[in-house]
């Protein structure tokens, strides 16, 4: 079997994006596992895998991946928001509020602000 190349990893990443859009998160995770194994520093691949885990209701795995992204990119508002959604979905709404508020502080988009519930 031929060795994967950087080009095959790019193809796998793009295919994983399409699979996630097509509501096949498990297929996306399978492709991203090999990309991340070869390039563990690739934050974009980790963020995409976190989204796929969330879509597949693998909340513990999603939480861990979102945390890795936040450690590497503390100013990534989307990662904070998605981690909050993950915690909320896992029944940990109290913990989620902090991340909703961080997301809104980093990027005051209307959906982030609404989720942050400032003043409540």
UniProtKB/TrEMBL annotation:
Coiled-coil ranges (or none): none
NAD in keyword set: no
Pfam families: TPR_19
PROSITE patterns: TPR (PS50005)
Taxonomy, superkingdom: Bacteria
Claim: Translocase is one of the keywords in the record: no
Start and stop residues of the TPR repeats: 77-110
UniProtKB keywords: TPR repeat
Listed name of the protein: Tetratricopeptide repeat protein
UniProt source species: Streptomyces orinoci
């Amino acid at each position: 079997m031929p060795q994967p190349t950087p080009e095959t990893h790019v193809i796998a990443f793009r295919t994983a994006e399409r699979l996630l859009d097509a509501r096949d998160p498990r297929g996306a995770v399978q492709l991203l596992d090999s990309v991340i194994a070869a390039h563990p520093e690739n934050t974009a691949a980790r963020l995409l895998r976190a989204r796929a885990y969330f879509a597949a209701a693998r909340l513990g795995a999603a939480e861990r991946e979102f945390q890795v992204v936040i450690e590497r990119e503390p100013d990534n508002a989307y990662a904070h928001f998605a981690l909050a959604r993950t915690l909320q979905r896992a029944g940990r709404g109290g913990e989620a509020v902090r991340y909703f508020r961080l997301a809104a502080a980093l990027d005051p988009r209307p959906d982030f602000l609404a989720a942050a519930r400032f003043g409540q």
